[in-house]
Amino acid sequence: MLLANLTSLGQVLVTYHPGIEQLLVLLPQGTAVTQAVGVSKVNTKQDYMGDALTFNLNLLIPLLPAPIPLPPQQLPPPCTTGFLPAQQQRVPTFQDYPDRAPGDVYCRVPQDAPFNVRGARNIPCVTVPGKRAPTWQMCESNEYYVPLNDGYNWKGDPNATLSGQPVPQLPPGSPPAQAAPPPGPAPPPIAAAEYDPATGTYVGPDGRVYTQSNLARSATEEQTWQTMLLPPTGN
């Protein structure tokens, strides 16, 4: 079993050799950059031991007393295209874990869009040089990545934009989603009526007056929760 696992691992390493080589080259530089954010606080005495790091995030503040020029949007803007629309997103406080919808959810904007450039849509296909795709299934297929829209707004139905692609995105070759069957006839309404607790009489849906003796307060039958599960003995 160990040799079989090593064989599979070797095939993966051979296929992704360029990516692993790049990782080994960039990892020391990335470690150095990560350590550099703390240079400003080395051997210093200060109240706030923060790191020198900027995410280029600008938030609008609408509660200011006077108008102050602020940036029109966040830099970079958040990507919402390709994700579930707001009306289908789950509340973060929910603690259950329902099954995921089939398909992939990622930022589906043009590959040359100026934001989220490190997104899944720009992953290089190792086995197909020059091609970039979000999944290995698309890399190995004849399909090419097609964005949903320019990334700044929804177009068409939230789950089927004008490009005709579903959200989440199904793997290449998947059959199109079938439409839901039409709703059947509505079930008959549940009949309910008020009864007189003194006598057990009530008016039925047909307008007639009925009497069920075990509903009356003077009933001789045992009135417990067990008797509620038994059929009536008579009216």
Present the secondary structure layout:
Layout: H1 2-15, H2 17-36, H3 136-140, E1 156-157, E2 160-161, E3 201-203, E4 209-211
Antiparallel strand pairs: 1-2, 3-4
The string of secondary-structure elements, in order, is: HHHEEEE
Return Rg in Å.
33 Å
What's the pLDDT, averaged over the residues?
Answer: 76
Count of individual helical segments: 3
Distance between the termini: 74 Å
Main beta sheet, described?
A: 2 strands, antiparallel
Q: For the largest beta sheet, what order do the strands appear in spatially?
A: 1-2
**Structural class by secondary-structure content:** mainly alpha
Low-confidence stretches: 60-72
Taken from the alpha-carbon principal axes, the silhouette is elongated
Helical proportion, percent range: 10-25%
Strand portion: under 5%
Number-wise, the strands total 4
List the defining traits of the structure above.
two-stranded antiparallel ribbon, elongated, 235 residues, two-stranded antiparallel sheet, mainly alpha, 4% strand
Tell me briefly what this model is.
By secondary structure, this protein is mainly α.
Structure description:
This protein has 235 residues and is mostly helical. The protein is 17% helix and 4% strand. The chain is built from 3 helices and 4 strands. The chain has a two-stranded antiparallel ribbon. Strands 3-4 form a two-stranded antiparallel sheet. Strand 3 and strand 4 form a beta hairpin. About 6% of the residues have low confidence.
